[in-house]
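Narrative of activities, Objective 1.

The group set out to show that a structural description can be obtained from nothing but a protein's sequence at a throughput compatible with the screening campaign. Below is one input-output pair from the validation batch, recorded exactly as produced.
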Amino acid sequence: MSKPLIFACCGGEVAAHILAAAAKAGDYDFAYSEGFADARLRLQTRPANLVFIEIAEGALAPGFTELTGFLGGKSIPFVAVCREAKHGFDGINAGAANMLIIPRENSSPAYIVSQLTRMIKAVDMETGESRAIKQDIISPITRIVAIGASTGGAEAVLAILKDMPADAPPIVAVMHMPPVFTRIYAERLNSISRMSVWEASDGDRLRPGLCLIARGDRHLTLHKDDAGFYVSVFDGGLVGGFKPSVDKFFSSCACSVKGTALGVILTGMGADGAKGLKEMRDAGSFTIGQNEASSIVYGMPKAAYDLGAVSVQAPLSEICALILSKS
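Output recorded for this entry:
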């Protein structure tokens, strides 16, 4: 029995990324062509299980409509790969299951390959059904939003995420919640927000348009390597009486990503997060505290404000716009 075939219709540089991703994702055959017409002829000979199409000129490119129409007729899923968002949406309009936008500058090959690998794994090679329902956008990460909350935090984070655009800066939220509830809560947010939202797993990498929710019975910390930013999720003792600990999370942001992170402390009882947010501000981060009038419990934001950890206090209704203005 032949292996599933991943086919790339693209230039050599992008093809090399896709080949590397296919090798990481599983045991696949790989083929590529640099022209739409040639790709269609080759796919008529041997249909692929998944196709990547690099779109440089959008829907007006000769052969593009014929190729995407052929794939649609054969129910072969394809991913649009492009340098500009407008070309990616040409792909979506033509039936692409997903799109990947790679900027012309400052794009890490390792990160591109990791995202391509995830896209390959998101497709059922037997049925062709794509489990990826939200478009991925690769762009240099210039801002990471770190949120900490407790009592009332679930609705506060929802209020912020519901207004975030699909290409918002990556967000990581640590809250004091029961472990089972965090997964259900993340699924709820994912159904409401234009961002992709899920419960964080160890090693998850950040990208624009992604929000990670810390698991209720594990600590979460943020780190940086040559491929970009990622989270560590691990067990351990209580820190200040909490697991996950907002202080531990904010402290890791101050150490690993410094001024790249924007810290937000929301409604909650106690003082968890105040010291860590102060570390973030001292490291160059802009920090936001929810004001008293809009907080269910003005404990954590007050403790942070009193410590000098807050750059500005704001009502919950203004925090989303404030985050975007600083991103």
